[in-house]
Amino acid sequence: MSEFTGLKALVTGGASGIGRATAALLAERGAQVAVLDLDPTQVPEPLRAWRADVTDDASVRAAVQEAAGALGGLDILVNNAGVGAQGTVEDNTDDEWRHVFDVNVLGMVRTARACLPHLRRSAHAAIVNTCSVAATAGLPQRALYSATKGAVYSLTLAMAADHVREGIRVTCVNPGTVDTPWIGRLLGAAPDPAAERAALEARQPTGRLVSAAEVAAAIAYLASPLAGATTGTALAVDGGMQGLRPRPA
Ligand code: NAD
Question: Which family is this protein grouped under (predicted)?
Fold first, then answer.
């Protein structure tokens, strides 16, 4: 028996990186887990996966219905699917702004809307949104991405207020730079990947990137009944990026 025995969880963006580590950890700890992803082909057993595009409301509603039906309900939503964007406000087009907001913010709204009727029937309902240190830290070259995560942070607080009396907790994790395929792609596109990696590592007071497993552990805590008194707040998993200034020698 573990804290997740009998609980059913849905993880968006669960085919890769933080979502994949979270889905695997929840399953290892006894939850039944459904993954929703644009490309669910790489999702390992015993996770069950459904294809869904969080920018498409009909696709989200259909996948959530099917997953909740297959699992026999839903207790936990890990709202994690997201995409990155680099640059200042002069670098991204209006279409890029619309698309990244569509995935990172509206995607979480659509998925929450589809899951809420199921979560209301749970005795241990929790939503955990994957936010970012970018929501509050003022990172250079991340204007669009940071704005989406600022919105996710505010959405987390507002949803926590709206649903607290229904017994649904809403929290978020604020990771720093996490070693996932996403960061692999970013480094791959850099003129000097080793120098870029060193710069990302140096930006974090711990001097290293965060692992996906470390973020998954924080999400699992927030999603678990052990966090029953925790709602409307963010847990930083950022190597001290937000709290420690300047980096200790
Ligand atoms: P990743 O690229 O490894 O995984 C993202 C997953 O989301 C992929 O499986 C992808 O297919 C899925 N996805 C993307 N768009 C989708 C859509 N429209 N519909 C359904 N699924 C979609 O990335 P990651 O690093 O694991 O990031 C996961 C989350 O963590 C994101 O919300 C990201 O903003 C956040 N985050 C990441 C970092 C980091 O440094 N990696 C830091 C802070 C926050």
Answer: Belongs to the short-chain dehydrogenases/reductases (SDR) family.
Residue showing tokens 């907001």: 101
Which two tokens mark 144? Answer: 């669009």
Helix, strand, coil shares, percent, the chain, to 5: 45, 15, 35
Dig out the tokens for 88 from the structure. 């200042």
How many Cα atoms are found within 13 Å in the side-chain-facing hemisphere of 204? Answer: 22
ipTM tops the 0.90 cut: yes
Q: What whole-number distance in Å separates Cα of residue 79 and Cα of residue 76?
A: 9
Q: Which residue's alpha carbon is at the smallest distance from atom 3 of ligand 1?
A: 17
Q: How far is the CA of 80 from the centre of ligand 1 (A)?
A: 6
Assign 22 to helix, strand or coil: helix
Cα(104) to ligand 1 centroid in Å equals 9
Other C-beta atoms closer than 10 Å to the C-beta of 21 total 23
> 45 falls in which pLDDT band (50, 70, 90)?
confident
Closest atom of ligand 1 relative to the 182 alpha carbon? 2
Distance of CA 34 to CAs 3, 101, 115, 149, Å? 18, 24, 12, 24
